[in-house]
From TrEMBL, chains A, B:
GO terms for molecular function: histidinol dehydrogenase activity. InterPro entries: Ald_DH/histidinol_DH, Histidinol_DH_CS, Histidinol_DH_monofunct, Hstdl_DH. NAD(+) binds at residues 144, 205, 228. It comes from Undibacterium arcticum. This is Histidinol dehydrogenase. Substrate binds at residues 251, 273, 276, 342, 375, 429, 434. Pathway: Amino-acid biosynthesis; L-histidine biosynthesis; L-histidine from 5-phospho-alpha-D-ribose 1-diphosphate: step 9/9.
Length: 443, 443
């Protein structure tokens, strides 16, 4: 069965409206989920471990196991020996691949730490006043890892390693184990990434435990990592008590191609996004109509080989598009409108086009940079801004696990000049105690 | 009437519980405000300018003016000539103070831009693969400025200048003018800060106009600046469509003093926080009980001189505290627990204590560094994390108006090694299109 993929032409009068309709995505707000998450959070806040235990036994069906439900949250912790055993139990080639990916991700983020101002700064003014900024890591971070099918060891690496590189003292991972089933590859990734403690809890109850702390689960300062609708909702609600990362939307890829890349490669790149999720979005921009037809032919030839073809077909049919553009310059303009999570620039001399891109989570330059390489092991983070949020937000990074403090050391001489300015403005704002506080330091 | 200020002693058995009770603050969630904000946002999204006009005429009582209500949103825009006129109309000493403050804030943030990794980075691996990070400014930013009494020109500088320094192309300011009354000092600050366009609209309707755009108000990529409960609620709701800054809680100061600073100075510093708001919090830590008594005496002597004494009295009575600590080391430990917005370290050699502080929005070192200097003109930003969020967040800065894109340019040789690693892990995660996408690039 052929895939009917949407075709757009940027020369059409209503192209912009068609593009907007293609991109439109509203995260559904479900009042029942909202209410359930709020109730679970309140219960965890009030009852601590007992509430976490009840919800975990219930939602993960632990009572139905031969050994019955858990009787303490301590039983739900997985110790370091078990993590190391999971790592030791991997097939050698898989273990090597995971270790290689971790090493490369660590290397990139160490470079990022060096380059993103982690040392802070300070400077001294002529009157002796010192101004600056101190940068410190967060004390303790929680990483949420989904259970079941969507459990991705690569996500454990991508969330934990930047935190470690930033200098976070303790990383607490939570991962639900529905029916008590553990994912060995996820546990092995936790071992490699240096996660400090792992609890097999999930859902809003795990978010609550991390945010408020319980007798067994220590409270964290920030919670990162993807989850289902209950988890997303709980994270939004605890924001302020702890920090959170972005709430991710469906994953997207935008490919700009000049028409000279093997069309099978491009088709497979579009599949690799589409296979994630029926809501995922794959779009190709090209100035060559004949090439778009060749990619479409590749799509229809290759789809039947794909184990996840049903998901791919639904995603490409409902949310995919092949877009004919006037030229590469226009392709870059459209890319800036879309502000894609992943942008492949599959051309010769891709840097010339990358220089024109203002908004993208990650750019993959040249014909060999398939997004899949970045998803696993190139080094940069695969947690990226979705749904046009690359207009204002960034890949997960070392900076997400650091915070800054301003440093102000005013000299006696500085207090004379600054004090007069501050007092003048404070009186202007009607804040007399501010003014007097400055004036008391005047000689 | 003497102020009865709470006294705590860190040697008390239940000190930690007393401290927790002192710090406890829950932002009230008002379902009626939630619903009103949501309804206004939906209406602005649907009806654009017409909705903005209706709400502005209604909530800011513009129909009651002699000239009646506004008939278009364009009428609510204040042009550059009017901003320049507001600046020209200031008393010379006030204009000079505002200009001096703006210059110092700009200088600090330019230094911050240099030091926070704004240049991005890239590095080339032995096989020719290039990895890096590109840093770009946001395109367009909205600044919300409250109207009426809480209109602070210093906040205009603190929000707009970092955006300008970051390279934001267009800054749109919104400021409500209840009863049509404009605050000339706020408009003058907008002129000095280089704000591009100003609309006299406020409330949830202004947040909606900035987030969604209307025929007259262009959509922005991020909204910053403080507002009332409706504004805070609207900002939370549009988060995702646009970026937002932190939702600020009541302002706080923590003073650590060794007992040798003039007690009047410390009393006035505590007042300067307390005068903001009845919910503001001022706490003093000192190892010298006699000194705490002297500060208390100063408080009771100085309070009657303060025009805002009623606010100060309520704030200090309900939320203030004088805390006796064992020694300066313990004071630093307690400061890390509190993670204060503002921390004064009023001692000799304050750097030795600052080195022990992990969590604070801004640190004011030495006896001359009163918080008021930082509020107006020292240079660092006065928009700081409140309510213990300094554990995971930072002062507003240039970095809040920039975002990063990962750059991945894999060479043909790199695609061979990375492709095998990626394929191995992708098969492990059951994502075969990812694996095939990597494998197609293998020779």
């Amino acid at each position: 069965m052929a895939i009917t993929i949407r075709k757009l032409d940027s020369a059409d009068a209503d192209f912009r409206a068609q593009l907007s309709a293609l991109l439109a995505f509203e995260a559904s707000e479900d009042a029942a989920i909202e209410q359930a998450a709020a109730q679970i959070l309140a219960d965890v806040k009030a009852r601590g471990d007992a509430a976490v235990l009840d919800y975990t036994n219930q939602f993960d069906r632990l009572q139905q196991r031969p050994q019955g439900g858990a009787t303490s949250v301590a039983q739900l912790e997985i110790g370091q020996p078990e993590l190391q055993a999971a790592l030791a139990g991997l097939a050698p080639e898989r273990r090597l691949a995971l270790q290689t990916a971790a090493d490369r991700v660590r290397l990139y983020h160490e470079r990022q730490k060096l380059e993103c101002g982690s040392a802070g700064f300070s400077y001294t003014e002529p009157d002796g006043t010192v101004l600056g900024q101190k940068v410190t890591p967060l004390d303790r971070v929680g990483i949420y890892v989904p259970g079941g099918k969507a459990a991705y060891p690569s996500s454990v690496l991508m969330n934990a390693i930047p935190a470690k590189v930033a200098g976070v003292q303790e990383i607490i991972m939570v991962v639900p184990t529905p029916d008590g089933v553990r994912n060995e590859l996820v546990l092995a990734a936790a071992a490699i990434a240096g996660v400090d403690r792992v609890f097999t809890i999930g859902g809003a109850q795990a978010v609550g435990a991390l945010a408020y702390g319980t007798a067994t689960v220590p409270p964290v300062d920030k919670i990162v990592g993807p989850g289902n609708a209950y988890v997303a909702c709980a994270k939004r609600r605890v924001f302020g008590t702890v920090g959170i990362d972005m709430i991710a939307g469906p994953s997207e890829i935008l490919v700009i191609c000049d028409g000279s890349t093997d069309p099978d490669w491009i088709a497979m790149d579009l599949f690799s996004q589409a296979e994630h999720d029926e809501l995922a979005q794959s779009i190709l921009l090209c100035p060559d109509a004949a090439y778009l037809a060749r990619v479409e032919a590749s799509i229809n030839r290759l789809i039947e080989q794909m184990p996840r073809r049903d998901v791919i077909r639904t995603s490409l049919t409902n949310r995919g598009a092949l877009v004919l553009v006037r030229d590469m310059d226009q392709a870059c303009e459209i890319a800036n409108l879309i502000a894609p999570e992943h942008l492949e620039i599959s051309t010769d001399n891709p840097q010339q086009w990358a220089d024109k891109i203002r908004h993208a989570g990650a750019m993959f330059l040249g014909r060999f940079s398939s997004e899949a390489l970045g998803d696993y092991c190139a080094g940069p983070n695969h947690v990226l801004p979705t749904s046009r949020t690359a207009r204002f937000s960034s890949p997960l990074g070392v900076y997400d696990f650091q915070k800054r403090s301003s440093m102000i050391h005013v000299s006696q001489a500085g207090a004379q000049t600054l004090g007069r300015v501050a007092a003048e403005l404070a009186y202007g704002e009607g804040l007399q105690a501010h003014a007097r506080s400055a004036e008391l330091r005047l000689k």
